[in-house]
Amino acid sequence: MPVHDRSSFESLYAGQPRWEIGRPQKAILDVADRITGSVLDAGCGTGENALFFASRGQKVTGIDFLAEPITIAKQKAAERNLTATFMVMDALALKELPEVFDSAIDSGLFHVFSEDDRRRYVEGLASVLKPGGRLFLLCFSDAEPGNQGPRRVTRKELNDAFAEGWVIESVVPSQYEVRPDPKDINFGRGGPKAWFVVARRV
Fold first, then answer.
1. What DSSP string describes 30-48?
2. Do the bridges between strand 129-140 and strand 193-201 make them parallel or antiparallel, or are there none, so unpaired?
3. Contacts by 28-32 with C-beta closer than 8 Å and gap 24+?
C-alpha cells in the first residue's frame, strides 16, 4: 500500500486499526532502555510509543501524515499530563524538520513505502538523527505468509536500504501484536511476522 494512499489509512482510523493495542509494541518495550535521549517517532499513529517515552521524561516528537491520529495523540498526552510534540507531517519530508534526535522509532511505517520512497525516507531519517544515533525499526517480514496487509520486506531489502551512511547492528525475527478481529485479515498465530532492526547512523 503506498504511503500516499491516504483514503485507505483514513478508513482504518475511522474504526480502530488492529495495530492500535493501547500500549507500545512489545518489540519496542524490550529495547526501551536503549532508546535514549530525544526521540522521533515516525508514523506515530495515536502516539502510544511516543507517550511511553515521554512518560520516562524524554523529549519526544511524533509525526503522522493523517490528522485524526495526531489529534487523538494530543488528547492522550493531555489526559495523561504528558509533554510531547505531535505534528501532521509526511515522513518523506523529514529533511524539513528543524531539529535532530538521539533516537528514532519506526513501528509499522517503513513497509508501506515503494522502493523510491523508501530511499527518500531513509535519507530523511539520516538527516534528523545525530551521528551515532539509532533507529529502532519494526516492519513486516517476508516470513509472514499470504499477501494481505502491508507489503513484505526481505532481509536483503533492509540491508540495501541502510547500506550507505548506516551500520545495521541487528536484524532479528519478531512479531506485531494486533487486536483479534475475526472479520478482518487473519494473520499467523501470535500476530504478523516482522523484522526488528537496530541501525546506527554513521
1. HTGGGS-SSEEEET-TTSH
2. antiparallel
3. 28/52, 28/105, 28/107, 28/136, 28/138, 31/136, 31/198, 32/56
Q: Is 117 exposed, middle or buried (0-12, 13-18, 19+ CB in 10 A)?
A: middle
Domain of 93: which CATH number?
3.40.50.150
Please choose, from the candidates 94, 49, 86, 82, the residue with its C-alpha nearest in 3D space to the C-alpha of residue 68. Answer: 86
Question: Does residue 36 sit within a domain?
Answer: yes
Which amino acid belongs to residue 198? V
The pLDDT value recorded for residue 148 is: 78
Q: Looking at the domain assignment, is residue 1 inside a domain?
A: no
Positive or negative, the CA dihedral 110, 154, 146, 119 is positive
Do the domain assignments include residue 90?
yes
pLDDT of residue 13: 41
Residue 53 counted as domain residue: yes
With a cut of 90, say whether residue 50 has pLDDT above it.
yes
Whole-number Å distance between alpha carbons of 11 and 169:
36
**How many other CB atoms are found less than 10 A from the CB of residue 177?**
16
* DSSP code per residue over 122-156: HHHHHHHEEEEEEEEEEEEBTTS-SS-SSPPB-HH
pLDDT confidence of residue 20: 79
Number of H helices, E strands in the chain: 6, 7
Query: One-letter amino acid identity for 117?
Result: D
Number of domains in the chain: 1
By residue range, what is the domain housing residue 125?
6-201
